[in-house]
Amino acid sequence: METNDIYPVILAGGAGTRFWPLSREQWPKQFIRIGGDKSLIGQTVDRARELSAGGTAIVVAGRELSEKIRLELLSEPLHFVVEPAAKNTAPAIALAARFIRDRFGDGIMVVLPSDHVIKENDLFREAIAKAAGAAREGFLVTLGIAPRKPETGYGYIRRGREIGEGVYAVDRFTEKPDRERAEQFVKEGSYYWNSGMFIWRAGTFLEEVKRHLPVLHDVISAHGPADEGLAEAFGAIEPISVDYGVMERSDRVAVVPCDFSWSDVGSWSSLDEVEETDHDGNVSFGNVVAIECRDSVFHAGSDLVAAVGVKDMVVVDTEDATLVIPKERAQDVRRVVDLLREKGAKERIEHRTVSRPWGSYTVLLEGEGYKIKKIVVLPGKRLSYQMHYHRSEHWVVVSGTAKVTRNDEEYFVYANESTYIPKLAKHRLENPGMVPLNIIEVQNGEYVGEDDIVRFGDDYGREK
Amino acid sequence: METNDIYPVILAGGAGTRFWPLSREQWPKQFIRIGGDKSLIGQTVDRARELSAGGTAIVVAGRELSEKIRLELLSEPLHFVVEPAAKNTAPAIALAARFIRDRFGDGIMVVLPSDHVIKENDLFREAIAKAAGAAREGFLVTLGIAPRKPETGYGYIRRGREIGEGVYAVDRFTEKPDRERAEQFVKEGSYYWNSGMFIWRAGTFLEEVKRHLPVLHDVISAHGPADEGLAEAFGAIEPISVDYGVMERSDRVAVVPCDFSWSDVGSWSSLDEVEETDHDGNVSFGNVVAIECRDSVFHAGSDLVAAVGVKDMVVVDTEDATLVIPKERAQDVRRVVDLLREKGAKERIEHRTVSRPWGSYTVLLEGEGYKIKKIVVLPGKRLSYQMHYHRSEHWVVVSGTAKVTRNDEEYFVYANESTYIPKLAKHRLENPGMVPLNIIEVQNGEYVGEDDIVRFGDDYGREK
């Protein structure tokens, strides 16, 4: 397989609410672990890296999300293309196409959503190889998944004549069908699920954008990525998906039928497509006791989840929120999130355990004037050199060894010892050892919000 | 109302599993707050206290539970009759009858289960007054509740001829009926729910025990409460309920029909009898978001519980366990508890927040070699003077003022300060102030179990 000209592009924008409370506004679906040990975006990056000779991938997302992905996948050599605003897939992909053309020349883009699950990686790579061949000849190629059931939640693609080995012209794209039509599509054998994975030359795509979305083309031609005018011009364009904006309008589209097992894991109810079920059809994570339950999803965070006689139900328990919803209503999770947004509830936004490039912290308890955290610092990592205006901090080392900087002092704190960081003291916490450092932090002050932090130095570029 | 001869007896034994995870083996149903601001036993004691001129009540329970009730209701002037073994209600009531006869003479016993909810207290008192009148004449009187629906979970009593104002002879006791018979009973108008509340002279009851349960009578006649032989003899008797053992066999039984709203709150599904429902028939406690849910029970502890489109379901979230069960299967909670027992799971036994006579503690986190607790000490209270073999403790005062004794020192620790208690140091924590003292305790050691404690002095008699 010729890989030197392949540039994977991972579409990582979007902050779905459909996996709440496991996903949050500040921790969207692509970060959660489904269908594998890594996060969905971690799995996607792994898949992408294998395709490109450079072992890299281009991630497209908004600024805040890009930063979060960078910290989450710190060891991955990723390029980031920042969307100045969320404008759906066509503008996002156009930005990536221009980035590739400017930086690498006219390479083959492999566009991958960041939050899908694919099981047979070898079949996936074969399909990409076929698609890349057609892309080199100037086609806009999409991967079509052989439908395993009459799914009404996906768009379908009907293949036309064969234009290469395993590559077909597209006869037509169809909207999400009703049940009856979906059954007909599956029976007919020439329809495929529209997977949202695309393969084409950057140049081909930009030509098609010029033809079908001239305003978008003007914007990205007139303004470079660092150009201050880009944000404003980009902000003014109409959001449009690549399916509507380009694929359905172009006469150069092709489809590669695929037979690997694929899921966009669109909701809690689709988990049984990507996770193992027990003999009663249940999917369980964590400490779950299920008695006479069928076809349900149980997710236990740190606590026990017990259910008796429950059918077709989703039960998700996290550190600070529990969801119970029938599978058939799984899409209505967003109504909970909407309601929480109206109420300004914190359970919508953030988890109690927050991942950081140096490790993680968990809020154990928060009350008037205090907050208790468990902090885990990974071996060799350190937090930023920082200061707080409104709080002091007691640190009790539970295991591991801490190196503490406090104003002009540097000292070590060992397990079963404690230290105190007064308000306004410049300080830094570091794990110089070979095992994780576990600390209990008791914050005291008139304000204990995360934003009371002044960073003087940071290993992860966050001092701005 | 003549009250000088009335001695309320509260049957507080029994460790039901039907309200797990809100109730636990170490925190049974009578301690939980249902149908009022106080615990069920607290409500029962309030009701009982009003009946007796002495303002006291006699509590019958096993040793461990008695101690727990004493600490929970520390300000109540209760008498305790300790059951050497759990032998159902007839032996428990016989012990109480002998206690009353020995201590107060032949008074009227008002026997009340500790875990029922009664709404109209005035009607309850009227009924007790009527019943006490008949009891003084030598009857064994039971309260019969006018059935509001064809309940199949209760036994029924059919009334016979009127033998006094509002007092009837008992025509017969019936077992829990099937649906059809229950409907017939309700229609007939002469049937009442068997409430398990009894009124009689201690002497009358003991005479009937002598007649119908002679072995039990021999045991309690031969051995006084402090007699070492009591435990062995009591342990050998057959368990039997007062209904089977005495009421159904006696020819001196009477019933007082009552029309107050009463429930034995037998399971999660009966909560709507004693708690207010919203217009969709849901009962909610705590931070609950319910969208398009009907006839369900939602209990949120400290965290958020969200549900969409759920019907006839019970969802209970506590600090360390979540239960989801359809209402119609509510009795099967015990199957979860049985399973947890087999697994030796701690969620069966104890809550993460544990009530103590001096306040409470909550286990925030527990790991290899450490445990983090939030400790609340009430104003003027103090923990025992104690020592640990296997752990040291860091205390950070979050609010309030702590008085600390550590070996020969005595000192104060203020908010935002910390102190350290090494292994083997004799120590005591006290709140000398007027507001609750909040402390975060970080325990470190090779063993952090609650039983690593040596008490040298205790305000609550626990140093033994």
Overview of the structural elements:
- The first copy, chain A, is 24% helix and 34% strand.
- The first copy, chain A, contains 10 helices and 28 strands.
- In chain A, the strands form 7 sheets. A 6-stranded antiparallel beta sheet of chain A has the order 18-19-20-27-22-25, with no helix packed on it. Chain A has a 5-stranded mixed barrel with strand order 6-9-7-8-10. Chain A has a 4-stranded mixed beta sheet with strand order 12-14-16-17, with no helix packed on it.
- With 464 residues, chain A is an alpha+beta fold.
- Chain A has helices at 40-51, 63-72, 89-104, 121-136, 179-188, 202-212, 214-222, 228-236, 242-247, 333-343, and strands spanning 6-11, 57-61, 78-82, 108-113, 117-118, 140-145, 156-164, 167-174, 191-201, 253-258, 262-263, 283-285, 288-291, 297-300, 304-308, 313-317, 321-326, 353-356, 359-367, 370-377, 385-387, 391-399, 402-406, 409-413, 418-421, 427-430, 437-445, 454-457.
- In chain A, α3 crosses α6, α3 (89-104) packs across α7 (214-222) and α6 crosses α7 (214-222).
- Chains A and B meet through β15, β16, β17, α10 and β19 of A and β15, β16, β17, α10 and β19 of B.
- β17 (321-326) of chain A pairs parallel with β15 of chain B, so a sheet runs across the interface.
